[in-house]
Amino acid sequence: MSYAGDVTPEEAFAAATGPDDALLVDVRTQAEWTYVGVPDLAGAGREVAFVEWSRYPDGALNGAFVDEVRAAGLEAGRPVYLLCRSGVRSRAAAEALTAAGLGPAYNVVDGFEGPHDPEQHRTVGGWKNSGLPWRQG
C-alpha cells in the first residue's frame, strides 16, 4: 500500500493549520531541530510533533517510530504530513505509517531546507525558504 502522495510545504502548512486536525511530524534528527530550525505552528494554535526517523549520529532507524508518532496523537483516519530535510526520509516515514494503518500520510516534497542551489547551498524550496513560519530549535 502506497502513502497518500506528495504535497508542497505550503499545502502541508494549510492542512496542518486547517479544519481537518492534520498532524505535522518533523522526522529529522534532534541535531537538525537544534541547529537548523523547526517549523512553527504556534501562531495557528497548533503543535508540531518531533519524532526521529533515524538516529543521530549513527543513522540507525528508529524502531519505535510508529509507536512514537501514535503517542504524539496520530490515530487511524487522522491526516499526517511528514517533513524531513529534503523529502527522502519523510517519504519512507509516510510509507511506514501507511503500512501500519495510519494516516492518510503525505510526504512534504523539498522538506524543511529544500534542494541545493547552483552553489550547493539550500536556498531554494522547502519549508524554510518558502516563507512559512519557523523558529530556531
List the helices and strands and how they pair.
Blueprint: E1 5-7, H1 9-16, E2 23-26, H2 30-36, E3 38-39, E4 48-50, H3 65-71, E5 80-83, H4 89-99, E6 105-108, H5 126-129, E7 134-135
Parallel strand pairs: 1-6, 2-4, 2-5, 5-6
Antiparallel strand pairs: 3-7
Keywords: Transferase
GO molecular function: transferase activity
Region (Disordered): 117-137
Description:
Keywords: Transferase. The structure is a single chain. This protein has 137 residues and is α/β, with parallel strands linked by helices. The chain has a single domain, classed as Oxidized Rhodanese, domain 1, CATH 3.40.250.10. Helices cover 27% and strands 16% of the residues. The strands form 2 sheets. Strands 1-6-5-2-4 form a 5-stranded parallel beta sheet. It has a two-stranded antiparallel sheet with strand order 3-7. Strand 5 (80-83), helix 4 (89-99) and strand 6 (105-108) form a beta-alpha-beta unit. The N and C termini lie far apart (34 Å). The mean pLDDT is 95.
- Sheet-strand content, in percent, reads 15-25%
CATH C-level category: Alpha Beta
Rg over C-alpha atoms, rounded to the nearest angstrom:
14 Å
- Based on secondary structure, the structural category is alpha/beta
User: How many domain regions?
Assistant: 1
Tell the overall outline.
Answer: globular
CATH architectural group: 3-Layer(aba) Sandwich
Mean pLDDT rating: 95
Distance, first to last CA: 34 Å
Order of helices and strands: EHEHEEHEHEHE
Domain Rhodanese: 18-121
Keywords: Transferase
Region (Disordered): 117-137
Pfam family, one: Rhodanese
